[in-house]
Amino acid sequence: MELTVLGSGSAMPVPDRAQAGYLLDDGDRSLLVDCGSGVLQRLAGTDTGYEGVSTVLLTHHHLDHVAALLPLLKARWLAGEEHLEVVGPAGTKSLVDGLLGVHDYLDGRIDLAVREVSSARPFAAGGFDVTARETRHSMDGFAYRFSPPSSDAAAADGPLALSGDTEAFAGMARFADGADCLVHDCSFPDDVDVSNHPTPMSLGESLADVEVGTLLLSHLYPHTGGREREMTESVREAGFDGEVRAAADGLRVSL
Fold it and tell me: Which of 182, 172, 175 has the alpha carbon at shortest distance from 214?
């Protein structure tokens, strides 16, 4: 499968980073993970397009992860697509109902299904096998691990893990152990005092004893601009010995 970073940014916009959004594609199926502001434009620039995405999986409900959800619904309706499924943690139905309450003219335009999932058991989303674990953030949410439809591997052993917004902690590291690629929140450089998000040093320390092929630092605030190399080096110096890269919009990773 292929991962495309659609949005590597945060709630504070910068020109070259849309808010959170990631596209998974195995050639036959596509899954959008999070749908922040700017993601719809990035998605329109892919071969998949918004016409090809009928399932969105949300990590949590902060605005920079859901802002383009109704614009996606409207774009699919106008393009003649008939279905959209939104999958996410508890409260996802309330979120979608609230959005449609404000923009009620969109209600009923397409076949909209909303499904809430938990970390208790694996599930399928967009044809991909998925398992979840709770994160440590200012809002309840999930990190996810993915296995493509063509793989015999269980989701818990899948090649891709995606943290959503979370502090770095041992449970998240164990969840990602063995993944070919981990996309992890690393919102600020080390000299910023922050909670609910990790710094490079805390992330590197948490991942020191696990095996991950490539670590992509994402959900990058403007504070990180021009300091990406410094941040990747700090992760390695703190103990992580895999490849470390700063995510960028448009980056594609084959898994």
Answer: 182
Tokens of 239: 């103990």
- Residue pair 92/60 in contact by the 8 Å Cβ criterion: no
The three-point CA angle 47-87-3 to 5° equals 35
Beta pairing, strands 123-125 & 142-147? unpaired
Query: Which pTM does this prediction carry?
Result: 0.97
Q: Using alpha carbons only, give the angle 38, 83, 150 rounded to the nearest 5 degrees.
A: 85
- Here the tokens at position 133 are 């674990």
**Structural domain total, the chain:** 1
Query: Burial, 70: exposed, middle or buried (Cβ in 10 Å; 0-12, 13-18, 19+)?
Result: middle
Spatial separation of the C-alpha atoms in residues 229 and 182, rounded to whole Å: 18
Residues β-bridged to residue 115: 87
The CA R_g of the chain, rounded to the nearest whole Å, is 17
Could you say which DSSP state residue 87 is in? E
pLDDT tens profile 89-136: 999 999 999 999 999 999 999 999 999 999 999 999 999 999 999 999
Q: Phi/psi at 222 (nearest 5 deg)?
A: -55, -25
Each residue's pLDDT tens digit, 154-195:
999 999 999 999 999 999 999 999 999 999 999 999 999 999
Strand, coil or helix: what is 170? helix
195 torsion bin: left (phi>0), alpha (psi -120 to 50), beta (else): beta
Residue ranges making up the domain that contains 122? 1-252
DSSP string covering 87-151:
EESTTHHHHHHHHHHHSGGGTTSSEEEEEE--SSS-EEETTEEEEEEE--SSS--EEEEEE-TT-
Compute the Cα dihedral for 81, 93, 36, 135 and give only its sign: negative
**The domain spanning residue 85 has which CATH number?**
3.60.15.10
